[in-house]
Amino acid sequence: QVQLVESGGGLVQAGGSLRLSCAASGSIVRFNTMGWFRQAPGKQRELVATMSSGGSTNYADSVKGRFTISRDNAKNTVYLQMNSLKPEDTAAYYCKASLPLYWGQGTQVTVSS
Q: Is residue 47 within 8 Å of 60, Cβ to Cβ?
C-alpha cells in the first residue's frame, strides 16, 4: 500500500501562484504515471497534468502554459506549479498514481477574483 498526501493548497488572488506537493509513502518510480486531477463542485473530476516514468508530460488545454508538473524521485514527491491562477481553477486537487491505482485525499485551491 502507498499513501499519497497532497499539500500546498489555499486561497490566492487571481494572477497568483501556488505549488502543490504530493508526497508518497513509498517509491514513486514503480508507477507508470503520476498525475494531478481536480474536481470543482458539481463537476466531474478532470485531468490537469500527468507525467510518465520516462518524463513525458500531458496537460489539459485549460492549464497549458500556466501549470507545470514535475517529480523528484529521490523525495518520492510530485509537484504542480500553478501560475497565473484564474477563478475557474478553483477546485479540490487530487494526486493520482498508476499502476496500481492510488489517489490522495485532495487539497483545496480557491482563487478569488
A: yes
